[in-house]
Specification:
2 domains; nine-stranded antiparallel beta sheet; Ig-like_fold; 25 strands; Immunoglobulin-like; eight-stranded mixed beta sheet; IPT_dom; Jelly Rolls; signal; IPT/TIG domain-containing protein
Length: about 350
């Protein structure tokens, strides 16, 4: 009888893995792309499996600078407008209020871009205030170029602050030139501060990424495809939702912070880790340059569409397409080639229907 009861208890546990959908266990897989030669601005279909669902297809926010209608008609060097109906709520509030400019100077552009953000010799080259729909996850990527080394000196200066819109200044994540941390005013530091210097390239464009999971209380940071923090725990604090970009750019502080010239472009914000990227290496972990592709029209477990963003990849160059799922797991790569551009500038998308944008 004891043997029989043991088998009765064991058999259900053996069957459990068989009852879990295979898509929930497997990383995304790309079987085909509607075009092997891609053009900037082109809409392409990617088929495969394990993509998962993306309730709101478009990213919560995609700012290439030139795709913002609020900047239409701005002259080169004009102050970036902020406030109601604009992409950002405020800018540079602690250093005169007009630090970030609109630049169309050709030598300052990245790849096919025709406009970029520029902040000249300031400690406050930043944009402030962008709220998204909260889901317990936030993903932010952007390109940033410093004219001088941001690490030198005894200061604490931030590249980004993310917050809960319910308590912006008291529930925050900060990434500085020397460390990174999450903080709650009612608890203190939520993790052992990650002491790690910014290791990007001075005088060049650098791809920054932030991924925060408010449910599991972990976060990751990457520069040019390499982890600066990888699934760092902030479990010392009660969980809270990150749904607000408090600031992004160069927020210098501490002892004698440097006033630097910097540029910023292609800011991508979403409330899921699900995304599509085109990178410079057939191995995702070895990639040093990735361009965000813009989900468009549809995203199902087996098929999705993106508007191609060629970014800084040269025409006729070879690159590698990836689909990343909601857990942050990438597919194997699919090789593509960039052909003739089908439109000037970085890919622009129309707002998705039924999505309320909160400023």
């Amino acid at each position: 009888m004891k043997t029989k009861r043991t088998l009765q208890a064991l058999v259900p546990s053996l069957l459990i893995p068989l009852l879990v959908p295979l898509g929930a266990l497997a990383a995304p897989s790309i079987t085909s792309v509607s075009n092997s030669t891609l053009s900037n601005g082109q809409v392409v279909t990617i088929s495969g499996s394990g993509f998962g669902a993306k309730t709101t297809v478009a990213p919560q926010f995609w700012d290439t600078v030139e795709n913002q209608s609020a900047y239409s008609g701005l002259a080169n060097g004009a102050t970036v407008p902020t406030g109601s109906g604009k992409p950002w709520e405020t800018q540079c509030t602690w250093d005169g209020g007009a630090c970030v400019k609109y630049s169309t100077t050709a030598s300052e552009q990245r790849g096919l871009s025709t406009a970029t953000y520029r902040a000249t010799s300031t400690t406050q080259g930043l944009l402030e205030g962008r709220r998204i729909a909260g889901t317990n996850k936030i993903y932010v990527s952007w390109w940033w170029k410093p004219g001088t080394n941001p690490v030198s000196g005894d200061h604490s200066s931030k590249f980004i602050r993310l917050s809960s819109s319910s308590d912006v200044s008291n529930k925050t994540m900060s990434w500085t030139q020397m460390h990174n941390y999450i903080y709650r005013s009612d608890t203190g530091y939520c993790n052992n501060e990650g002491w790690a210097n910014w290791n990007g390239n001075v005088g060049q464009w650098n791809f920054h990424e932030v991924m925060i999971d408010g449910a599991s209380r972990t976060y990751s940071l990457k520069i040019n495809g390499k982890y600066l923090a990888n699934n760092s725990s902030w479990a010392n604090c009660a969980a809270f939702n990150f749904d607000y970009v408090w600031m992004i750019g160069w927020d210098a502080g501490g002892n004698s912070p440097p006033a630097i010239t910097s540029w910023m472009d292609d800011i991508y914000v979403d409330n899921t880790f699900s995304r599509v990227m085109i990178c410079d290496n057939a191995n995702f972990s070895s990639a040093t340059k990735c361009e965000m592709q813009i989900p468009t029209n549809t995203w199902t477990d087996g098929q999705l569409q993106v508007t191609v963003n060629q970014g800084s990849f040269p025409t006729n160059s070879t690159a590698y397409l990836y689909v990343v799922d909601a857990n942050g797991s990438p597919s194997a790569s699919k090789q593509i080639t960039f052909g003739t551009s089908s439109g000037g500038g970085t890919a622009t998308i129309a707002p998705p229907s039924g999505l309320k944008v909160v400023n």
